[in-house]
Every structure is written in C-alpha cells, then in structure tokens.
Amino acid sequence: VQLQASGGGLVQPGGSRRLSCVATNTFFTLNTYAWYRQAPGRQRELVASITGGLTGGGRTEYGDSVKGRFTISKDNNKTTLYLQMNSLKSEDSGTYYCHMKNPRGAMWWGQGTQVTVSS
To answer: Residue 18: CB partners within 8 Å, gap ≥ 6?
Structure first.
C-alpha cells in the first residue's frame, strides 16, 4: 500500500487549496481515510476523516477548527482522497498527511505535503 499526497504550497489568508492523496494497492471503498496535520512544535492532529461510501459519499468527521471551512471527499474510481480547504488561516499552516486504516485495523501514512498560509 502506498499513499502519495500532493497539492500543498503557499496560500494567502482567506484563500483556498485542494490536497490530493492517491492510494495504490488497496481496496479503496472499505477503508477509513483521514487527513492529519502537524505544525512545528505541535502534536499531529486530526483534520478530517471519511469512512465507507461510494464516490462523493461516506461518513465524515471534522476537527473543530476546520468545520465549515474544509471538506473531505474521495473518488473510489480514481482511488484518490481529497481535502478542499477554504477560508484558510495562518493557523492552518503545517504539514498535511493522509492516513488510511483498513477494516482489520492496519494503518498507513502518506509522506506529507506542506501548506503555508501567509501573506
């Protein structure tokens, strides 16, 4: 199993960015996928997760700090996880990691993509 995250970069406050994470060698539909982030000097925190469902569906959960601004989704056909980030703030800066857990509880991490929100 491999998770390849991309889409990070420099964004101005109030701007938007979409992160992608391509999963390979895994049965996509049954897994739980998530985005975590980690800022320098801080613990890694859950941003959003999505479980089950067809493309465009699934049960989602969000961290309190991103509710209403971020949207997690997945495309089962493309085996790709997305994180649409809107109304970005400086405190959203950090390295974003995609994460996968299969029904047996085994977990994998992607390599991380850096998001910097700054003017």
So the answer is: 7, 82, 83, 84, 85
**Do residues 80 and 21 touch, judged by C-beta distance below 8 A?**
yes
CB 88 within 8 A of CB 15: yes
Closest CA to 49 of 114, 111, 107, 115: 107
State the Cα–Cα distance between residues 37 and 26, nearest whole angstrom.
23
Question: How far apart are the C-alpha atoms of 11 and 21, rounded to whole Å?
Answer: 19
Cα–Cα distance for residue pair 46/24, rounded to 1 Å? 22
**For residue range 39-81, what is the model confidence (pLDDT) as tens digits?**
989 999 999 999 977 766 789 999 999 999 999 999 888 889 9
